[in-house]
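Appendix B, example 12.
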Amino acid sequence: MRRMKSVCRLLLLVGIIANLQIAASGLTAQVRTRGIDVSKYQGNINWTKVAKDSTIKFVYIKATEGTSIQDPMYCTNITKAKKAGLLVGSYHLYSSKTTAYQQMGNIRKMIKKNEQDLVPVLDIEGHHSGRLYMERVDKLLELMEKEYGVKPIIYTSEKVYKLHFSGKKYAKYHIFIANYRGYPTTRFTLWQYTETGHISGISGYVDFIRIHRNHSLADIRMPKKKKPAAKPAATAAAPAPASATTPPAADAATK
């Protein structure tokens, strides 16, 4: 009996593992193209090594927080990541303690439009759910759109999304969901699926991101600059016909 029970338990365990593998493969099929997001907590990053991972196509880099905090590694990270061939974008960590205008001043100082390959992100962490001040959030979204010419991506947890961003008002925004336990139950374009990833070039943990299967990198790329319309080529003025009553001008040599 004990042996039979052991065999049954083993078969049950094998079945569970198989189902988990099937679920994992299905989950993987739902998303494609990986990226990472980094800040000062990743320390000095070897971007050449990071870029050698063929699955990593893009990176979001922390730039600012609140009114006055600026990530000390931002300029180094964005310059070296671009040089390594990765597509780069930047994010601002929202603060409920200061105004949208104050935070926008900080964002504008650091996040330069001409350095961005990807649409900027407004990072709204889960702890803000009870005191988000949506008028302030809406104003900051508006100011960022005016500055960068595109609606910013909203990063948040599923809880905050359901409480504040699931309505039609935000239907045109791309959503960046953080969920480390499983596939998101809300709509999303980007999914931060782990905060304990490892990659060559970064010591310690790093966040990994996937793109939903119905989206692609093209959806979060900054809009291309429109080339100014070419001016029509100037045509040489035709010489005025000689007047019957006016003699031709004398040649300088014959004056």
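The chain has one domain: 37-220. Confidence is low (pLDDT under 50) at residues 1-31, 240-255.
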